[in-house]
Structure formats: structure tokens, C-alpha cells
Amino acid sequence: MTSKSTLEFALMGMMRFKPQTGYDLRKTFTTTGMRHYSDSPGSIYPALKRLEARGWIAPAPAQGEADARRRQAYALAESGKEALVKWVDQPVTHDNVVLRVSELMLRFALMDGNVPRATTMRFLADFEREMGNYAAESRAKLEAMRLKAGLHTGVLAYESGIEGMEHQVDWARRARELFEQAEGGQAPPARQ
């Protein structure tokens, strides 16, 4: 079986609450913060075909404009919902924060309506811990770079990246606090 792509999970996440056509999905990619995904028919339609072949999506009766233009709408199948939940609910690892932050943010964005709030809280705690560890490791390397290179554009660029990581740690902490306030409870412990 071919590997699953982040694009495929993004497509399934957008189909979670209502059937969508390829055109609808392309339009979402073009007009929202999901722009970094290709809105190319050469990416989206093959991904839809792979999802359909796996049985994770199924043709759905088209409605409105889709009927008039004969566009095929797709709905998320039960097996697709299960695959989406399994993907969203993966632990946050060191490699994730180093190599796949945008994928982590997509997983976070798709949590509501797919996983219990406790899972979201655990994700945020794990993200805060792993990103915090990575930022601290990077900050130590930065200090060594400064000693060796002095003031250098590469050093300053590296520092900018670390400040971005530290901002994400602060964001995760604030997000957990907001959920805790909204629910009046405590967060579950982070995964070990």
C-alpha cells in the first residue's frame, strides 16, 4: 500500500463535516491559510482517487452547483474517519517538532470534532515539552556558534528560528490555559 500523505489527511479533514468536490477543496486551498498545499488538479484529484481506492472516501450525491456542473462530491467514509482520528491522535515526538511542525499544526487544527478534548490537551502538553526541549538544545548551540563566529548573519538567522520555536512553546502553553479555563478543569498529563 502506498504511504499516506499529509495532503490526503488535509483533504479528509475538510470532508469531515460535509461532502466536498475537488473544486471545493481546491478553492479552500486557494483562499485560506492552507495555501501551502498545492491547489493543483495534478495533486488534489490523484489524492482523491487514492483515498477512494482505500475506501476512506466515497462518492456522495452532489448538491447545488456541483450537480449543475457535474462535479463529483466525496464524503468521508467510516474507515476514513478512523484513519483520520488515528493520524490526528499520534504522539508528538522530537522528530515531529524538528521536521514536521506544519503537519503538527494540521493535526491540531483537525482535532475538534475528531478526538476528545483530553487528547487535544495532551497534544498541547506534549508539543510544549518537545518544542521546549528542541528550543533549549538549539539555544545552547547558538551560544556555541556565537563564541566561534561572533556577530554573523547565519548566527542571527539561527536565532530567529529559535525565537520562533520559543513563541510556539508560549502559544501551546496559552492554548492549554484557554482550554482549561473554558472547561474549568485540569489538563491530562503529557504522554511519557
Can you put this structure into words, describing what you see?
With about 190 residues, the chain is mainly alpha-helical. It folds into two domains: about 5-85, Orthogonal Bundle (Arc Repressor Mutant, subunit A), CATH 1.10.10.10; about 95-185. The protein has nine helices and three strands. It has helices spanning about 5-15, 20-30, 40-55, 65-70, 80-90, 95-100, 100-110, 115-150, 155-185; strands at about 20, 55-60, 75. Strands 1-3-2 form a three-stranded antiparallel sheet. The radius of gyration is 20 Å and the shape is globular. The two termini are about 30 Å apart. The model has no long low-confidence stretch (mean pLDDT about 90).
Question: What would a concise description of this structure say?
Answer:
With 192 residues, this protein is mainly alpha-helical. 67% of the residues lie in helices and 5% in strands.
Computed structural class: mainly alpha
Low-pLDDT residue spans: none
Integer-rounded radius of gyration: 20 Å
| Total beta strand runs | 3
Strand content is 5-15%
Distance between the termini: 31 Å
Query: How do the helices and strands follow one another from N- to C-terminus?
Result: HEHHEHEHHHHH
Mean pLDDT: 88
Outline the biggest β-sheet: 3 strands, antiparallel
Gross geometry: globular
DSSP helical segment count: 9
- Biggest sheet, strands in spatial order? 1-3-2
Helix content: 55-70%
**Total of domains:** 2
